[in-house]
Amino acid sequence: MRNFVTAALRRTRSLAPDEKVAIYEELLRNIAADDDMMITVLDALTTGVAVSDQDHRVVFINHYLAKLVRLKKPELSDVFVWDIFVRKDISDFIRTTVSKETSRTSRIFESSIDNKSFSIEVTVSMLQHSSGKKGHIINIANVTEREREKSEKKREESFASLTALTAGVAHELKNPLGSMSIYLQLMERQLQKPEAFKDADSCRESLTSKIKVLKSEVERLNDIVVDFLSTVRPRNANLQEEDLNQIIKDSVEIMIPDLEQHNIGLKLELEENLPFLMLDRGFMRQVLTNLMSNAKDAMKETGGGTITISTGKNSESVILSVADTGIGIKSENLTKIFDPYFTTKKSGTGIGLTLVYKIIRGMGGDISVNSRQGSGTVFSITLPRMEKEIKQIEWETK
Predict the structure, then answer these.
(1) In angstroms, rounded to a whole number, what is the distance separating the alpha carbons of residues 106 and 134?
(2) Which of 105, 126, 147 is the last residue of a domain?
(3) Which of 113, 129, 147 is where one domain is finished?
(4) What are residue 396's phi and psi, to 5 degrees?
């Protein structure tokens, strides 16, 4: 329409007065028809629309909004746009927003009519004409169904998080319980054949060392339960100066009998004189146990193999690697292994590596994986040499 008006006005410059009048009348009829069409369209909307001028006075409201605010259009002369709303909170929101001249702002308001609750979204957008004139358009939409769906989705996500949390507890408890079962079996065999020891003292010493491991695993079970219970109120990582090599030695000791049962060897290639790091010892042991357990599972199908744990350093970080000679990871799965619930194991929960990722990131480090199907897998962890800001290790779903 705008192009038509411009072209028509250009033509009138060379026309006689009576011809100009005819064109002007035609233009006015077209403009009026377009105006009626626009009003008809706006009145047909099932959302409320109000338009204000640069002085914030109402220049138009559509039929839906007129019914909503119970106003008649003749009553709109010289009325501020926020004054057409009875509810003070909505009126205050609109007045504050148009005064700030924000380009677009929305807010959800809850309301009820005849004991029926509903949600309305009020959106205030600034209008600016090329001529410099300004104004605002206020849109009122009933978003009850949308907000209900959002609430249901949030509730479902909460249930999913609870399910994942439960699965994670089960996953983490399985490792120390497995180690305890193996040590109890070893103690049972030892008690059945005490003659295998040269004297009572050597038998007692062997049993005492196994009991020490069992007590350590009981403490780890308690730590795991406490950690998972605290995910609803995430605790800070207890970062202290720690010797990473010593944490590795303590962690692998309790897994050696389980690895031997599956014909899996263990190699430690630990660089001497590593700098002390700011670590949470309990979380770090959890990381190592998870990675070694995954490596063990990857080599069960090949009848055994070797886990190699190595450490090194550069000017900024200490690097920890856990490598296995297992079946490897398919290339299409490499980008998914840290995602919650993703697993290729029949009995897997898809939680272990997600926890590993969260723990390492929470201690200021990073973790990556390199694998080829049939050629084993290497997990590489970089940990900062200098003290980093303590971060919360939180349970999150993506």
Answers:
(1) 19
(2) 147
(3) 147
(4) -135, 150
